[in-house]
Structure formats: C-alpha cells, structure tokens
Amino acid sequence: MSLQKLYIKNKSYLSYKNNLISVKIDNFETTVCFDDIDTIVIENQQTTITSALLSQLTKSNINVIFCDKKFMPSSILLGINKNSRTTKIQKSQIIVSKPKLNQIWKDIVTSKVKNQSKILKKLNKNYEYIDLLISRIKSNDKENIEAIVAAYYFKELFGKDFSRNNPENINNAVLNFGYAIFRSSICRYLIAYGLNPAFGIHHSSELNSFNLADDLIEPFRPIVDNYVARFIKEDMDLNSSIKIALLKLLDETVIYDDRNMTVSNCMKLIVANYQSICLSKTEELILFEL
Questions:
Q1: Which residues of this UniProt protein bind Mn(2+) (predicted)?
Q2: Full-model pTM
Q3: Residues paired with 21 in a beta bridge
C-alpha cells in the first residue's frame, strides 16, 4: 500500500490531534491520519509546527524534510533512542571487517551500474559500454568504475555538454531535490534500526553525519535520473508539481528478493539487511532490481 506524501507549500499551522495531523491554512483545516503518512516536505518557512506534533512524528518514524529559503531540502527530523538495542547494534557496526565492507561496496556499485544501464536501455540510449565495465568492478571498486560509468552515463542521459557541477542547470536542481528525498528516507530507517548514519561502508568523511545513507542510496539514484530524463525540459523551473512527483517516486515499484514492492519499503528492508550483517546474522547485502 502506498502511503501519503504531504507537501506544505503555503503558510500553515501543523498540530497533533488524536493520532491525526491537523493542517490549518487561514480558515481552512484538514486532518490526516498518522498511519497513512510516509513523508512530509515543509517548504514554507513561515509554517508553525507544535512540539507535540514533532514528538509524535519522530515516534511514528515519519520522514520530515524542511526546506531553506531557496526551497531546497536543508534538514530532516530524526528521533533518538528509536531502537532498544542501539548500543549493541552500533558496537557491532563499527567492528565489521574491512574486507566485508569492501565486498558490500562492490555489490552496491554493481547494483548501481546495472540500474544505470537499464535506465539507458529503457530510454533507447547507448548502454553497451556500461555493461562492459560491470565485470571490472572489484572489491571496494578499486578501479573506481563507479566514477568512470558516471562520466559516460550522465552525458549519454542529458547530452555531451551536461555537467553535474552546473548549479544553474534545471536537471541538476531536480536531481538534487530527488536525491535529498531518497537520502532522508534512508536516514529515518537507519535510526529506526539502531544504526549510526555516520559510520559508512565506503563513504567516511568526518564532515558528513550521513555517510551510511550516502552509501545505501547509490543503487536508488537511477530512479530519480529516469524521472528527470523523461519529464524535465530545459525551460522548466523546479515547481511544486515536480517536487510532488519526486516525492511519489518513493512509491515506484522495484523487485527485491523476487518480490515487487515500493522504493520506500525496499529501503527499509535493505537497512534491516545491513543491520543483520552488522550483528553477524547474515553475510550478504541483498539489493534490488529495476
């Protein structure tokens, strides 16, 4: 079942009432059941949220994204002590062996590259070169095949003049917004499963509190790429309808462990799988297919 995504564009007053979120805009008020909500994006910076609602949102593990004055995601709401075994899990997390982490990163990069190839094929772009590179992905991606593929992939997807470093490009703006939504969704599951988001598999920046989320998001990025390549044109702005469509990508269907499920549920199961690896309950990180 697909859960609701709330997008707060106008100045609103958000409060908690009997397992309901009350959204009041001027004289208009509506309510939404907590059990029906997956993600909330709050774009309007004049919106008021009661502390009671903030508390219930973290308790219910609902993904909440706050936007800055440029209307881009700037922060997320995360709870603490979401798992009764947090200390045990995080102690196990930091002692996972380097060879094991290297193998997991190989699997993540392989999954990402395969998904990138499928997107190009689906869009009738040249994908054969990427397929040839898959066999070269080794432990810890020592040859940095991920970067080699990315350099080819984005130019094939958006044109030879495209650069991910151009902040003025509408494609980049939409990609960044979509990636931020996916990243925040993974973060809330990491907290729920007692994992420390800062302790990554491959990413290890001391300045990044979400290294692990940045590892696990990689195979999911092509889902956002596909949307941008299909629907975004050069003369467009990053408007409300596009942001809502990006939110709904969490409801897209993927194949995980031979089952069809939403992207959001797949993220949850992959995080749970990684927790099991940290606790030595399983060896392999199972990833998904498009």
A1: 146, 203, 218
A2: 0.92
A3: 16, 32
